Amino acid sequence: MPIRSFLQTTLLGCIIAACPMLATPAVAQQDADATRPSQEPLPSPREIIDRFIAVTGGVDAYKKHKYRTSRGAFEMPAMGMRGEMMVKQSTPNMLLVTISLPGIGEMKQGFNGDIGWSIDPMSGPQIMAGKQLEQMKREADFFNSVDILKNFKESKTVARTKFNDEMCYQIKLTGEDGVTNAYYSIESGLAKGSRTVAATPQGEIPTTTTLLDYKDFGGVMVPTTTRMEMMGQQQLVVIEEITFDEIPAEEFVLPAAIKTLSEADAKKDDETSDEGADKPGS
Amino acid sequence: MQATAEDIASPVSLETKSNRQEEPATQDPLLAETFEKAVESLRDAGAISDMNDEDWAELEARFAERAAGARTREELRLVMQEMIETLDRSHFAIIPREAAVETDDDDSGQASVGLTARYADGIAILTEVDPGSSAAEAGIRPGWQVESVRGRSVREFLERFGEIDSSSMAGYQRNAGLNAFLTGREGRTIELELTDLDGETRTMELEARPREMQMIKFGNLPPMSVRTDFEILGRDELHEYGVNAPEGYRVGVLEFSVWMIPIMQPILRAVDEFRNEQVDAIVIDLRGNPGGVGGLAMGVGGHFFEVPTSLGTMTNEFGEMTFNTNPQRLSPDGELVSPLSTPLAILVDDMSASTSEIFAGGMQTADRAEVVGRRTPGMALPAVAEELPNGDILYHAIAEFTLPDGATVEGIGISPDLDVVLNRDAFEGSRDPDLRAAVELLLRKRAESDETPAP
Prior knowledge:
- The structure holds two protein chains of two kinds.
- Chain A is an alpha+beta fold.
- Chain A is 23% helix and 44% strand.
- Chain A has a single domain, classed as outer membrane lipoprotein receptor (LolB), chain A.
- Chain A has six helices and 14 strands.
- Chain A has a 13-stranded antiparallel β-sheet with strand order 7-6-5-4-3-2-14-13-12-11-10-9-8, with helices on both faces.
- Chain A is globular, with a radius of gyration of 20 Å.
- Chain B contains eleven helices and 24 strands.
- In chain B, α1 packs antiparallel against α2 and α2 runs antiparallel to α3.
- Chain B is globular.
- β1 of chain A pairs antiparallel with β16 of chain B.
C-alpha cells in the first residue's frame, strides 16, 4: 500500500500543541535485529520474494491487472481522528492518494511518473525532491510488491528475527534514499512489515510499518490493515474494497497548483543551467 | 462546551450534577482499565526525557491504591489529574468526555460581553473591547479596570493564586479564569463594576451575546472557536493608535484566535491583500491565542520565507521532527507569487501559548520577526488527545520542543524583543499599547536601515 510517505507528513502536521484547557529509536539501524542463531543458511532475497509471490496468488495474478482502486478508512487513534481514504494506481507508476479527515479536510498526494507532490490544508502544495521523491517513486511502482528487489540497488537476507511477535526473515534493502529492512514470515511467507527511515519535509524519521489481515482481492492476497508508527504515534489504514476497473489517465494529471509550481521550478532550473553554461570555461 | 463563569476553568471540574454517579460497592473494571491505559500512554509516549521506566513505575505505584479505590469516573479523574500534575509540565490534562463532545446546545457558554482582560500588577485590566459588542456600545474602553463581576470581587479571585509568575502555566490559568468571568450564556446580563481611565468607578449591566466565530471539532479535543481577521491600517488609523507614521505608510494587521485549519484560507487571502497593497509592515497578533495544530506553523511561516526554514524541533525517544516552513508560492487564484519579505512583528502576551510560542519563537530565532509584548507562558509541547477506555480524554505531550538554536520553550516562554509593560497608564496614549509599540519599533528599524529620519 503506497501511502507511507503520505501518512508520515499527515501525522506530523496534526500534532497538537494547544493549551491544556484544550517509529525505532535510532536512525541507524542494525543489520540484524534480534535473534537466535540458526544452523540453516538464510534463503536469498529472491527466494523469499518468490515464495511471497507464490503464497499471495502467483505472478500471473499480480500482473493480470493494470489498474487498482483501493477504498477504506484512515485513522489516527491517538487523536481520535478517522476518515475516508482512496488510492488509485495505474501501471507503470501512476498514483493518487486522497484522504479526508473531519477537522482537516481533504489531503492528496500523487505521482505521475515524473513528479511527486502533495497538497494539504496545513502545508499547502509541495513538490517532492531528493530522498522523498525516491521513496515516492518506489511506492508508486504498480508492481512494487513483486518487483521490490529491482527498486533497490542492493539486497541481502541478514537474519531470522522476530517482527511483531512472529519469526521472520529480515531482508536489508539498500536504495538511493537509504536502508529499508523488510520482514517476511518464516512460517507463512507473507510480508509482515518493514522498518525504514522516511524522508519527509520535516526531516528523516524512523518508521515501522506492520502489515496485517491478508484478504483476497482479484486473486491476490493483500494486507488490508497497515499500521504505521513514527515518533511513537500510530496511523492505521484499513482497506475495505479493491476494484480493478480502468482509471482514466486524467485522474493522474497534476493539480493546477502543482503544475504551476513545477513549471516555475523547471524554468528556474533552465535559467540556472543557462547561467552556468554562459560562464567562461563551461 | 466552553467554560463559563458558572464553571471554573479547570478540566476536572467541568462536570454537572446530572452526570455525578451513585457510588457502587466495588470498582468498575473499566476504571481500572482506564487508569492502566493512562499510565501506559504517558509512559510509552516517550515525551519526558528525564523519566525512565523505574520512575514511571514509581509514579504508578504512588497513585495505584487511590485509583483502585475510585468508585466513579469523577473520583478517578481527580486521582489521574493529581498524578499528571506531579509531572509539572504543560499539555497534560484529563478532559471529561462531556466536554469533548460536539453539541448543538445553545447553552454553550460561547456568549460574551465582548471584553478581554489580563492580570496586571494585582489588578485586572481590560485589554480589548470587541467592536459591536455590548461592552463597546456601553462605551467601555481598553485600559479600564475590572473591580467585580456579578458582585464577586475580582481582586479576591486574583489573590487566591498568590504570588505567581504571570508568564507561566499558573499565570495562564489565572488569566483564563479571569476571562471566564466575562462570558455567560447567551442573553444573560452580566453585572460589572469597572473603573475607567479617569478613576471613576461605575456599575454596568451588559448582555452576553454570541461571538461571530466558527466552531471546529478536531479529533478528541473539545470544540474550539475560530476567528480570523485582518485589516490594513493607514496613517490616519495608525494615528488613532497613537502612532505618528509617515505619509503613505501602511501596516497589515492579522489576527487569529487559534491554530486550526479554518485559519489557513483567510490567512492566504490576508497575505495576498498585504502583497497586492504593498504594505510597509505586517503585524501578526497572537495575544490570547492558545495554540492548536502544530503543523500549521509550518504553513503560515511559509508565507514569510523563500526557502524551507526551521521553526524548531520536536524530540522524543523515538526520533525527531523539524518544523520546516513550506514556502507558499501561490496566490488564492493560483498565480505564482513569492513569499513576503515585508518587515514583520508578532504580538504575544502571557496567554499566547503552545503553537503560538512555537511560531513566535521560531520566527524570532530565524531573525524574521520582532516579537513584541510580554513573555509567553512557556507551554509548548507537541501533544495528542487520546480517548481512554471510560471515554474521558487523556491530553498528553508526546515530545519535547526546542527552538532552532536549541533553546527550550517549555517552562520558560518566549521573551519579546520589545517588552511592553501592561498597566493602565499604557492605555492613556493608545487603545492598544502593544500594537503601537510594534509599529513604532518597525518604523525605527526602517529608519535605521534606510537612514531615513524617523518622525
